[in-house]
Write a structure and sequence with these properties.
Elements lengths: L16 E11 L4 E22 L3 E7 L7 E3 L8 E19 L7 E4 L11 E4 L20 E10 L3 E4 L2 E7 L5 E12 L6 E4 L2 E6 L2 E5 L4 H7 L3 H12 L8 E4 L8 E2 L4 E4 L12 H8 L7 E3 L5 H20 L1 H22 L17 H4 L3 H17 L1 H15 L2 E3 L1 H11 L3 H4 L2 H6 L13 H11 L9 H4 L4 H10 L6 H11 L7 H14 L5 H10 L3 H12 L5 H11 L5 H11 L2
Parallel strand pairs: 1-8, 14-15, 15-17, 18-19
Antiparallel strand pairs: 1-2, 2-5, 3-5, 4-5, 6-7, 7-12, 8-11, 9-12, 10-11, 13-14, 16-17
Bound molecules: ligand BES and zinc ion.
The site of zinc ion (ZN) has 4 residues, from helix 4.
């Protein structure tokens, strides 16, 4: 059996799904999507074909000619879902699966009107990475199985469908009161990049290749925040070579979106917490854009190679920002990343296998071991390659790497082989195998520094000795400066110190979610009561796990606020995304 993906039932020896034709109705009353998925195989086959599903109701399966295909749905595995085994008659190249999704589909969040900006219409969105596509479409749900697709989605007529694909026609649906939208994805994608949203969604052009989509209430703010997208696209092409997905549009999501961003091709999804009003959080847009090459063109073969997606993308994100804003911006970004990595390493423990770049996730839920390690340890390793090869050679290498592997999904070992072929000796010079296959952070981790970074670090590290920022100077710090300063402060401060910071810099009233979250973590750890109301309201406004997890951990870890954590969760659990809810339940059960 050639199933090389421990998180999928896929066996590519049985046949390879290369195209899908979807026809789905979205029902907001029952929280179900119902319809058909027609799967086309690369060549005619016969015998068993195994697909991944999770909580799908399979009603009927036929061949392209309408002959019934026997099928069996296996037992539900908590991590993997249920194997759907089809028994194909010899010579089958197309199968049509009639099915419905479950209201509990792990990839979908159904929002009540109250959970949207406009408060008048419901909303639905998908989030398929890592292994949730199988709860929306029966598929060979492994990044090794790329496919193209065509989709028709029918929804209540007041709503609009957007999809990570090229939009086609929109028109009245077959049933009255409905509207149908069609889409075409001509470039092959791994299943985790399948994505769509349904709601009251409008758009505005930002450049010849980019447009922002949001609910109407958020459109102008979003258009301003991300107005520089076209320059980013050009800067990214300088790093990687041509952009091969035609358009780079993006959708600013409702607040419950559990991630900062998701690189769905042609339509990146972004959290509204990036709308800081000062363009200070656009690195997330640069990050998702960079995935258009590292991740979407060259894709990790399985989740165990996830660092190939994220490590290279963080490297690219910072490289793009360096090109646009200079070296200092990169040093600050790298320092923020390093703080996050140190925390993740401390949490897992230095010998934990989850601190390796190449992981062994078999039998484990990818959402449970998601961490910053593949991002930031990966970034450091890619930076080491760059330093060892020299920038000019490494730039040429990256372009060649993308061109060589584009539209394929590769393992860490395939990458290492290519690296050795193109830049002989570099891997050994930096001890790459130690970085990849062993835990912890090796001693040769590169350092990024700048005068400004040192000033901020020294100031924060001198806090306990009485060093304080000058209130007038602090008022002019950039959001990145504040993030670093707050991250470098002790996690727990005397209440007087909290009050001093708050009085001088009004941190509890911060509109920038990164600064606010860093501050609220200190406030929670310190038991600083004047910030409790803000903690409560912040935890009811945002759904991004990056903020929810550390804040709940801080509250729950402090005897004074433990019950408060449980109460706030009980009040808000219903509006959190299922993935976020699961993550928080684990924190509150520990
Ligand atoms: N692809 C990830 C998000 C993701 C990873 C979703 C794994 C589900 C499973 C995305 O590109 C990402 O890394 N987002 C970060 C942005 C950041 C590192 C700039 C996030 O959400 O915070
Ligand atoms: Zn990413």
């Amino acid at each position: 059996m050639s199933c090389r993906d421990p998180h999928s039932y896929t066996d590519l020896d049985q046949g390879r799904v290369v195209h899908m034709d979807l026809d789905l109705n979205v029902d907001f009353d029952t929280h179900r999507m119902t319809g058909t998925a027609a799967l086309k195989l690369a060549a005619p086959v016969g015998g068993p074909l195994d697909l991944d599903t999770r909580d799908l109701d399979i009603n009927k399966v036929t061949t392209g000619d309408g002959a019934e295909v026997p099928f069996a749905l296996g037992e539900r595995d908590e991590v993997m879902g249920s194997r759907l085994r089809l028994q194909l008659p010899e010579g089958t190249q197309q199968v049509v699966i009639h099915y419905a999704t479950s209201p509990e589909a792990s990839a979908l969040q159904w929002l009540e009107p109250a959970q949207t900006d406009g408060k008048r219409h419901p909303y639905l969105f998908s989030q398929c990475q890592a292994i949730h596509a199988r709860s929306v479409i029966p598929a060979q749900d492994s990044p090794l199985a790329r496919f193209t697709f065509h989709a028709k989605m029918t929804v209540p007529e007041a709503l609009t469908v957007v999809m990570a694909a090229a939009p086609g026609e929109a028109g009245a649906g077959a049933e009255s009161g409905t509207r149908s939208f069609t889409f075409e994805m001509p470039q092959s994608i791994p299943p985790y990049l399948f994505a769509f949203a349904v709601g009251n969604i409008v758009s505005k052009d930002l450049g010849p290749r980019s447009r922002v989509y949001t609910e109407p209430e958020t459109l102008e703010k979003a258009a301003w925040e991300f107005a520089e997208v076209d320059g980013m696209l050009t800067a990214a092409e300088e790093v990687f070579g041509p952009y091969l997905w035609d358009r780079f549009d993006f959708l600013v999501m409702p607040a419950s979106f559990p991630y900062g961003g998701m690189e769905n091709p042609r339509l990146t999804f972004l959290t509204p917490t990036l709308l800081a009003g000062d363009r200070s959080l656009v690195n997330v847009l640069a990050h998702e854009l960079a995935h258009s090459w590292t991740g979407n063109l060259v894709t990790n073969a399985t989740i165990d190679d996830f660092w190939l997606n994220e490590g290279f993308t963080v490297w690219a994100e910072r490289r793009i920002l360096e090109n646009l804003e200079g070296e200092e911006a990169k040093a600050l970004g790298a320092a923020i990343g390093r703080n996050g990595l140190n925390e993740a390493l401390a949490e897992f423990g230095p010998d934990s296998p989850f601190t390796r770049l190449k992981t062994d996730g078999k039998g484990k839920d990818p959402d449970e071991f998601y961490s910053l390690v593949p991002y930031e340890k990966g970034f450091l390793l890619v930076s080491l390659f760059e330093q060892a090869a020299g920038r000019e050679k490494f730039d040429a290498f990256i372009k060649k790497y993308i061109d060589h592997f584009k539209f394929t999904s590769i393992t860490t070992e395939e990458f290492l082989e290519f690296l050795e072929q193109e830049l002989p000796g570099v891997a050994e010079q930096v001890d790459a195998k130690r970085w990849i296959y062993q835990s912890g952070l090796p001693d040769n981790a590169p350092q990024f520094t700048s005068a400004r970074l040192e000033m901020l670090q020294n100031l924060a590290r001198g806090w306990t000795d009485g060093l304080r920022p000058d209130p007038r100077e602090g008022a002019s710090w950039s959001p990145e400066d504040w993030q670093i300063f707050l991250q470098e402060l002790p996690r727990k401060l005397p209440l007087d110190d909290c009050a001093w910071l708050d009085e001088n810099f009004h941190l509890t009233e911060q509109g920038n979610a990164e600064i606010l979250c860093n501050w609220l973590i200190i406030a929670a750890n310190s038991g600083y009561e004047p910030a409790f109301d803000r903690i409560r309201s912040f935890l009811s406004e945002v759904g991004r796990m990056k903020y929810l997890k550390p804040l709940y951990s801080a509250l729950y870890g402090n005897e004074k606020t433990k019950t408060m954590a449980v109460e706030i969760f009980a009040d808000n659990a219903g509006s959190y995304h299922p993935i976020a809810r699961g993550g928080l339940e684990r924190i509150l059960a520990s």
